[in-house]
Amino acid sequence: MKFFNKISVFYFTFLTVVIISCNNIDNKKPSHKKEEVIAILNGQNIFVSEIDSIIGLQIYEQRLNALKLFVSRKILENEAKKQKIPLRELVENQINKKCKRVTIEDFEKYISQLHISYIDTNNIKTYLLTINQKDRQVQYIDLLKQYYSIKIKLQPPFYNFTNTNEIISHKLTASKSRTEVVIVTDFTCPACQQAEQELKNLYEKYNNKVNFKFVYFSDYIDKSALACEAAAKQYKFRQMHDIIFEHTELLNQDSIYFYSSTVILMENNFSAILSNSLLIMLKCLNV
Hints:
four-stranded mixed β-sheet; two-stranded antiparallel sheet; Glutaredoxin; extended
């Protein structure tokens, strides 16, 4: 039985794309001179850059994680040399011996989250201890980093400029800056709901410096999206947007329309506005 499957893997349907808008965009085809050809399809070359453009961010994240691990190991090795002790001894003294012990409360809390009939006590305790050791390792290395000069030169992949005028979106801040952050999100996504508070902090902090925009990311048109689109007709998208994220229990309930018609103070033609909003949403989803 594998207890490591309990490790949560968060799937974020929330996606943040940072785009620098440009009105004069030159749509030049990329040059493939001296590039590595990795496949040929009916005589047509497929270049490595074309594949990297698809998985570029994944490659960057893997390299960054590997770089962090490598830097951490180098710091531990240097510290072991300073103390004139083997690396294994340093790890034992500063990490293994100083990490948080697994308590009965920790064990019982973890067990309560499992829905299994058989419990392997030793494996669970070992697993929890490993987590504590990793936490202590991060803590110890962060403490040592202040004594080292570290310059990370690894850069994320470069993405071509995109004309954001072609994206159907709604403004979240008053800024008219040409630097835009397009928030591609969904009201019903749990991860999006959790991230909303952090995003609101960013909106407030960079309200006059960055042009934040909202774009729907959903497989279907729900009532909350319609309500927001209807509010946008009254130039009150942001107000309705905030209300929905603050009252997620109202999602897909008719009461969300009550908020639209009262809090946003819609006029008597609310039904007509709502119908028109449906057409807009269909266009957003390319239906």
